[in-house]
Design goal:
Length: 141
């Protein structure tokens, strides 16, 4: 009987070590996969915001330059900038939204027949860029 006990104990100890190693490997792999998924999600959020913010600023620049040439009375001309602003409202922090709203107000106001004294467009852009960079930096951490 003692001849059977030693190999059985060897088998049980080897099997339990193998099960523990498998469990640890599974847990570590799952943690790494979750970490990779979170990192990819953050990268995607950063990329989406960078694209959106760049397109928004390009459209704002285009509209401002157009207002210097001619005033637009057709409100459908503002569709693109207001669409991008709506997307910013959906995705972004309140600071970025407020800065984007200031830019939209300035752009639309620049097409008014009687322009009022308003903030400097460059300063509005810089404020938006500062808030956008801060938000993006938070996702990159």
């Amino acid at each position: 009987m003692p001849d059977v006990v030693a190999p059985l104990l060897n088998f049980i100890s080897t099997a339990s070590v193998a099960v523990m190693a498998a469990a640890l490997s599974y847990a570590a792999g799952k943690g790494i996969k979750r970490q990779e998924w979170d990192l990819n999600l953050r990268r995607e959020k950063v990329a989406v915001r960078q694209r959106l913010y760049a397109e928004f600023l390009a459209e704002a620049d285009r509209q401002i330059l157009q207002s210097m040439k001619e005033k637009i009375s057709d409100t459908t001309s503002f569709y693109e900038i207001t669409r991008k602003f709506s997307e910013i409202e959906l995705l972004s922090s309140s600071d970025v939204c407020a800065a984007a709203k200031s830019i939209c107000d300035h752009v639309i106001g620049s097409h008014a027949a009687e322009e009022k004294a308003r903030a400097n467009f460059y300063e509005l852009k810089q404020s938006f860029i500062r808030h956008a960079r801060k938000e993006i930096a938070n996702y990159e951490k």
